[in-house]
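Homework-ish question, so no full write-ups if that breaks the rules, but can someone show me the predicted structure for this set?
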Amino acid sequence: MSKLVVISGPSGAGKGTVVKELLNIYKNNNDKVHLSVSATTRSPREGEIDKVNYYFIKEKEFLDKLKNNEFLEYNQYGTGKYYGTLKSHVFEYLDKGYDVILEIDINGYKQVINNYKDALGIFITTPSLKVLEQRLRDRGTETEEQIEKRLKTAKDELKNKDIYPYIIINEDGKSFEAAEKVYKIIKK
Ligand code: 5GP
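A: Not a homework solution, just the prediction itself:
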């Protein structure tokens, strides 16, 4: 049976890389997987394609869908923009026999399990908070203030990680191994 998999973890834990490796593992096994495409009310950035990166929709359409209970989960961020996972999108792929991967935060995961109790939650993190901090600094893409903010969010997320049935440690340079563990958990 196809599975709905939620992957969460603090920014800097290498979630994106693990998900990329995971999709490759599926491909190499001739196994069906789909990375969910969210809906958002923000404008596309340069190079982003509608229905590939996001379903770019107007706020009115988003709010209408919200009222009609069409989202599996959603959030509105500080920017005022909405982001959400459409039930129709996820179930279209599950029905076709694909495992569907959602890369969302803890808040989203809580909403998903309320709506769909068979969802499988996997939390990806670093061996320690120190490693996480080092990775954020090594990226060199953020200001000190942004790093501090991300670390604070990460600490809050780590406090809640036990709501996930599976926690995977992504050690430095071992994202493939972490992805293999995730694949095994999904296929168990
Ligand atoms: P961005 O605008 O940079 O693409 O994304 C902004 C934030 O929205 C990121 O933290 C991203 O993880 C989050 N996000 C993207 N899609 C969804 C979604 O479907 N649901 C939720 N809850 N957050 C999302």
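Now go work out the reasoning yourself. Hint: The chain has a mean pLDDT of 96.
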